Structures are given as C-alpha cells and as structure tokens.
C-alpha cells in the first residue's frame, strides 16, 4: 500500500479539538466532517488539501478526546496518512481501528518542509521525501496491528475472528 | 516477579497468572460505555459486525451528556439514534433528568467497582480508576467490538508511580496536585502508562477529590489512573455496588517504569494557562498579573461533585459576582443537583448572580450553553484549555480548582481565594 502527496506541516501537541471542533460532532458523514478538518488550527486547511496529501506533525499528535470524528475528518478531506514524531494513545488506536495509516518517525518529520512531495510505503514503513531525495524508516507496527490494518480495520478483523470462532 | 495494581487487574481479566508491560492480551470487560458523541459511531460499527445482541445488557450503558438537552435538530437526531438502540437492545440508558455526566454518574450508581475493567468511549473514562479499577478511554470502534464480544485487545501498560507526601495547604485541592503533576511530567508524560497515585495526601482525600485526580490522567496521556482501595473507597462502594468487587494491592516488589514523589504541602493552588493543561503557574505568580475575565464555569466531569459545589458556594455566600462577569454553575448529575438544592447551595449561587443549569457537559467542550466569543477569557474548573475548546479558537481558558473559580467570579479577575474569602460585597 503506497501513498503519495504533498506535506502539510503542524507543530507539537495538536489536539482533537483543533483537528475537529466539538461544535461539528453532530454528524458522522466523512465529507461534512472533512470540510472542517483542522478548523481550530488552520481554517484554510480543508480547502487547500489535495487527495493523497499527508499531514506531518510533531509529538503527541491527536491528544485529547476519543472522538473518531478526528480520523473521519482527516480521511474525509482527502489526507492519505499522518506522519508524526509521536501519537497520543487513543488517537493511534482509533487510527489503526479505522484504517487511517499513521507512521511514527521523528527523523522524517525533522527533514520535511511544508509542500515537500512525499511517498510512503505502508507495508515496509518507508517514507521517501522526493523533494529532498531522502529516505526514512518509520517505527514498525506490532504484527497484531498489521493484521488489523490488513483486514481493513477492527470491524473487519473482528468479523473474521467471530466467523472463525463460530466455525 | 511482583505486579502493580493495573497488571493484577489485567491478568485476572485475561485468564493469566501474570502479565508484563508490553504483553498483547484480550481482556474481558466488566462495563462498556458510550455517550451522545461516541454512541452514534459505535452503533453503526456494532451493526456492521452482524451481531444481534450485546454481550450483556446490564453491562452496556449509554449516557447522553455532551449536548443535553438537544442543542438543535442535528443533536436531537443523535439522541434519537442512541435512544432507539437502547430501547431495541435493552441496554442501560440514563435519560436526561435522571442521569448526568457519565464519569460522575456511573460510579455514583454503582456500575463501576474496585477491580473492574471498564472501557468507555470518552477520554475521561479513567476517572473511575479512583475506585481501584482499570478504567480506560477508547474510541467508538473499540467500544462497538466490546459491546458485541465483551472483550477488548490491550497492550499491558507500564505503571508510573506517583507518591504525594504530606498534607495539602488550606487552599490546595486535588485539582492542584494533578495540574502540578501534568505541569511537571508534561501532557505526554504518561503516554501509554498506568498512573498509580499514592501517599498521605491521597489517603486523606474524599472520593469526590480522588475522582478529580484520575479524571485528568487523560491530560497527561495516561491509559488509566488507579488509586489503591482503602476504607474511604469501600465506604463509597458498599451502599451502591451493582456487582461483586475485588481489591488488588500492588506487590511490594512490583516494578515501575518511573516513580515521582511530591511534597503536597508545598503545592500551591495552580492555574493551567492557555492553551495547554501542562502550561501551569502557581496562583501567587498569576495573581500579580491582574488577569481580567469574562466568564467562569464551575462544572464538568473534573469538578462538579458535592464537595466542589460546597467549596465554591462557601466563597460566594453573601457576595455578588463582579460586574461584566457571567458565571455558569452546572452540578454534574441530577442527584447532585437535588442534593445541592436541599443543602441550599443552588440558592447561594443564584443569589450571587450565577446561572445554574441541570446536568450537561455543556460549556466544557464548547458544545452549547456558554460558548466563548473571540478574545474572551474564561476561568473554568474543567480539564482542557486547548485552542477552541470552549468556543472561538482565540478565546482563552484558565483551568483552576473550585474555590479559585468562585473567587475569580467575585473579583472579576484571577485572584487568590484568600482575597475574597470572608468579605461581603455591597449589593
């Protein structure tokens, strides 16, 4: 699974109130939520994003609330994956469960400027900065999490598990 | 090898003798919760699983809290989805007027007891860890799977030990201990960890005060926060427990990833400045800055229990709130509202010029009922002050304990409560 797009850079501790304001938590429609992605940080963001673009951020990305509207809005506005120096626990878990690729790689984040063209291979965790001709290796997923990702998220994974249990 | 409380609870719920940090395990859950923000997604995901019934109707609870009463048609539709599912499936549902904010309501009603694993689709779920339970916030998708199977996958967290020596000073509250802790370890200082709170200062706290500590585990990135069970815990649990409890003590040779020690007697009332709960200063540092305010909010899952309301009322009794300042007081549950009414606290607040509402999360997340305009400043007893948290992204939120919030409402600026305590303002 590979993704390619332009980098949109953000700082440390981007919380879920910045990703999707609470006022918007009245729908679960990806298109509607996508229009307000990052509204409390950069109100222009949702208008600028092109399909496939990549969010690049610092430490503790997604801290705060457990709202999955955050992932739905990121996916809904066309972002293909998030690369950060680190993720908040619930945000990371929700991303795996919902099929939003998230990669932890501090070195890559330090070497990416806004607008850089990036290429990400999820199966190997390789991040390539095409603009600067640099390659980085993201922290690998636990094999168990890779199974969830490959199944397409926790729901599909659980359906298969339940089917096996039933025989 | 000895285990911490978190490890013992997880071992018991995964059918193992022993677990260690990093182990991936399937955990049986004792209680599953979703609120009006997270239930609609959980219901949709639950339906995709193709399962007909929840694993145990008595162990799945929905609590409308964030946007109650319905703010507009869109939120009314969300409540309808939630209510319809509850009717069909027979799960526990707390309607407005009978419920309140889940993190205060569920322990009060006895749904969570010591030794439980409790998973809730809300980041402040760790609040219930004050009862010696493993309470963990998750997203709607995890909760949907837990509703269906009664299980969740977990990575066993390492435990951080926090010991608070000594006794708190006259105006210091549990809120100040946890704000000071977040200021010290950082808002990602406990990411993926269980925080085990101990020490003399904890032992002398009421349950009301203890819940405030574990409530803000989320603001330090923690997976759960646990306070060892003692007589205070059991006195709270005995009259209300809906199921059997188990008390787990940490082994003397348990291993901790790190240990922090605090001198509680040296911790001053603390203020978290915009825009992070970790951006803390002491009240002595802040009071000199003459920070004028527009709104005060006394409420939320952090500080809206009886003890909080009593302390705020004590400061406000016989005084009027400052001109051009508005103060909103929201008891966390209907039961607390009724108790506050009986004790005369509601009268104290209304006579001071506060607006008092029935239970809702309301202004804490900027959903409704007291949203802030651009550039406005709010002093709040809640737990988050991120950009846009309570309204406009350029509104500023200062997090404090209840006496400080009440004092700010009277003075119209952030002051030491000593400055207004005892004084009577001219009406």
Q: Main traits of this protein?
A:
A: alpha/beta; seven-stranded mixed sheet; 19% strand; globular; B: 427 residues; alpha/beta; Aconitase, domain 3; five-stranded parallel sheet
Overall description:
Chain A is an alpha/beta fold and 167 residues long. Chain A has helices spanning 16-19, 30-34, 45-48, 69-76, 89-98, 106-110, 143-151, 154-166; strands at 2-9, 54-57, 81-84, 102-104, 117-121, 126-129, 134-137. Chain B has two domains: 5-262, Aconitase, domain 3, CATH 3.30.499; 271-419, Aconitase, domain 3, CATH 3.30.499.10. In chain B, the strands form five sheets. A five-stranded parallel β-sheet of chain B has the order 4-3-2-5-6, covered by helices on one side. A five-stranded parallel β-sheet of chain B has the order 16-15-14-17-18, covered by helices on one side. In chain B, strands 10-9-8-11 form a four-stranded parallel β-sheet. In chain B, helix 11 crosses helix 13 (345-352). Chain B starts with a helix and ends in a 16-residue tail after the last helix. The model of chain B has no long low-confidence stretch (mean pLDDT 97).
Topology of helices and strands:
The complex is a heterodimer of chains A (167) and B (427).
Chain A (H helix, E strand, L loop, with lengths): L1 E8 L6 H4 L10 H5 L10 H4 L5 E4 L11 H8 L4 E4 L4 H10 L3 E3 L1 H5 L6 E5 L4 E4 L4 E4 L5 H9 L2 H13 L1
Parallel strand pairs in A: 1-2, 2-3, 3-4
Antiparallel strand pairs in A: 1-5, 5-6, 6-7
Chain B lengths: L4 H9 L10 E5 L2 E5 L3 H10 L11 E4 L9 H17 L2 E2 L8 H7 L8 E5 L12 E4 L2 H10 L1 E5 L3 E7 L8 H12 L8 E5 L1 H4 L3 H9 L8 E3 L4 H7 L20 E6 L6 E3 L7 E3 H5 L7 E4 L7 H11 L9 E4 L4 H9 L2 H8 L2 E2 L20 E4 L15 E4 L2 H10 L16
Parallel strand pairs in B: 2-3, 2-5, 3-4, 5-6, 8-9, 8-11, 9-10, 14-15, 14-17, 15-16, 17-18
Antiparallel strand pairs in B: 1-7, 12-13
Helix pairs in contact in B: 2-5, 6-8, 11-13, 11-14
Output the CATH topology of the largest domain in chain B.
Answer: Aconitase, domain 3
If you average the pLDDT of chain B, what whole number results? 97
Helical segment count of chain A: 8
Structural class of chain B: alpha/beta
Distance between the termini of chain B: 65 Å
Helical proportion of chain A, percent range: 25-40%
Number of strands of chain B: 18
Inertia-based shape of chain A = globular
Distance between the termini of chain A: 31 Å
Tell me which CATH architecture of the largest domain in chain B applies here.
2-Layer Sandwich
Low-confidence runs of chain B: none
The percent range for strand residues of chain B is 15-25%
Q: Count helical runs of chain B.
A: 14
Number of strands of chain A: 7
- State the major sheet of chain B: 5 strands, parallel
Residue runs with pLDDT of under 50 for 5 or more positions of chain A: none
